Hints:
single chain; alpha/beta; Rossmann fold; six-stranded mixed sheet; globular
Amino acid sequence: MAELLTRNRLDAEALAAAFESRPATELIAWAIAEFGSDLAIATSFQNDGMVILDLAWRIDPGVRVITVDSGRLRPETFELIDRVRDRYQIAIEVFSPDAFDLEQFVAANGVNPFYRSLDLRLRCCEVRKVEPLNRALRGTAAWISGQRRGQSLSRRAVRKVEIDEARPGLLKLNPLADWSAEAVWAYIRQHDVPYNDLYDQGFTSIGCAPCTRAIGPGEDSRAGRWWWETGVPKECGIHCQVDWATIRA
């Protein structure tokens, strides 16, 4: 297993180097040709994900699209999902938290425990977001995310091709890693790509209703995520593998 993981890591590093200066469309086209139905686009329908979806759809209208409904999304997000279905005529696979796990978590900790501690916030993200995504990605060989290096400090080192450290054996592709927020918006306007109405209300990162808000002038684009937390990465566990024990110490 260690030898296989090392070989895969070397392959990922070679691919990352090969695609670093090439357009996002080339990486997406390569992934679709290489993995076919074993590839999935995972999106929360934020702007970055909408650009990826549009790019991929233009290459293959049958590309697989998956998303997680945490049970706490804002109405504007559900409305956008319906608009995307109508616009692109694609099936969107929606994965929800395991009902028993969620019931147990809420029974033990309450409906909004994430405000009380980092541990509870991470556990809530695990139940509502990470576990459903893990389920959605079972059986896939690779997945595409909307991560960009400019989104946050914890994402500065994102490469266009990576080994998914949280899901051994999976390849993770980040075609927009080198895009700026301005480039994302320029693409959306040029191609009339649907986007979440919350962006027009000052949101720059959109997730669960209790955990995201609009940002103020001069705030970081991820400042609206878990705004009550300070000194910790603005991550939920889907992307960034963080040594939380060290942070808590």
